[in-house]
Structure formats: C-alpha cells, structure tokens
Amino acid sequence: MAMSKRQKRLGEDEESDGSNNSQNDNSDSEEDEMLDTEVNVDFEARTPDDSDYHGIKRLLQQLFLKARVNLSDLTNLILERNFVASVIKQCDDDVDDESMEDDDDEDGVFGVMSVINVTETKQRECVRQIMTLLRDQCRASASGLAAKFDEYFTEESYQLGLVISERFVNIPPRIALPLYDALMRDVEAAKAAGKKYDFTHVLLICKQYKPSEEHQGAVFANAEEELFEEEAELQFEYNVTGDADTAV
C-alpha cells in the first residue's frame, strides 16, 4: 500500500532556515524532490497487547471526541478481549530508523478493529457511558426511533455487539475488508470456545463529514461504512460539530 510522506516532510523542512541564497536554492531543490517522493508501506493486522494502549486510546479519542466516555476503561476492555481485536501496524520489514522514532511517539498503531459485547459488559463504566450517550442522542435527534433503539439495550432477546473500527485518515479503505474478515474469524473462534459472541445485532458508529450547509451530501470517514448504512435495520444521525475541529 502506498502512503505519501509529503506532509511529514513539509513539517520537517519548515523547521530549518538557510543562511544564504545558495543554501536556500539547494533547500528548495531538496524540498521539491521530497514533495515528489512516495514510499510503499505495508501494513499488517496484529493482536493488540499492552504496548498498544496509548495508540488505541488515541484512536478512540478521535471517535468519541469530547463525549463523556472513559476511554482508558474502554481501551483496557479492548485489550482484555484482544482475542476479538486487531491493530494495524507497519510491517517490521518496512520499519527504518526514522519510522521507528515515529513509532515510539505514536506506538505505531494506525488503526484498531474490535467488537464489544455490550449485553454482557453493560455494567462496565465505559459501556454504560456509551449506552447513555447513544440513547440520549437518539432521543434528541430521532425521537420516533428511541423506543425501538432502547430495546436493543434492554430486551433479553437481543445480544448486542459494538463494532469499533477506527483508523487514521491516510490509511487506504481497502484495508477494511481483510480486517472485517479477521474479525469474523475471531468471533467464530470465540463462539466455538464457548464465549458469548453470538450477536443478534451489531452497532456501529459511522462518522460523516459535511463541509457546509451549502454543499449537499456527506463523505464517510471510513468509505466502506456507506455499505452498512444501506443494510442497517435502524439508523439515525447526530451532530458533533461542537466537539470536533471539522464538520462531522
């Protein structure tokens, strides 16, 4: 998979300044070469461990923004149930000294995929907070659906799973299919081992970007989630513009 390092290179170059015109000319030439440089980076899915804690939590922050959700507890829950979770990391063969320094800063976690058994963990603080958040948002944004939506959390006949699928924006969407395939295999293995992952329904929080009221339509942060919208039994939208730097 190809990932441009253009933005990173620009950030590095802006910190340096030339002492004469000749040096500036050389610097400009080097910058032009860097702008045109693209490197091939291979990613792989791995089972998360404790060293991925901060990277996973950072990704959860961009999903829940300023919502009142204990992200430390949610991160720990994902790590405790890492048999149904994956993190996207750079392949070891592609890691050089420079990227290793970046990994030290960001734990090398470019994405996370997991499923939380909401029905079985609803007494957990982070799960209670997510349930409250979503039910409140449904009442405020789509009151006609609130009664049905509440049933998924309260009726014993439902086994509800919350899919966590979050990655950095520069990760290509084609990585989603193998991640979902891996998640399905993990869930089947967990069920075969007697764990309670036989869901009747799954819940997914999908982010959409809406540039402005003048522009029609929205763009999904994760492109594949547009397919889920078409198949959803129940869906509603709520606005988090006040919590985000962009219109979401």
Automatic annotation (TrEMBL):
Residues 27-36 have a biased composition (Acidic residues). Residues 1-36 are annotated as: Disordered. Pfam families: BCCIP (PF13862). GO terms for cellular component: nucleus. InterPro entries: BCP1_family. It comes from the Eukaryota. Transmembrane segments: none annotated. Belongs to the BCP1 family. PANTHER family: BRCA2 AND CDKN1A INTERACTING PROTEIN, BRCA2 AND CDKN1A-INTERACTING PROTEIN. This is Putative brca2 and cdkn1a-interacting protein. It comes from Amblyomma cajennense (Cayenne tick).
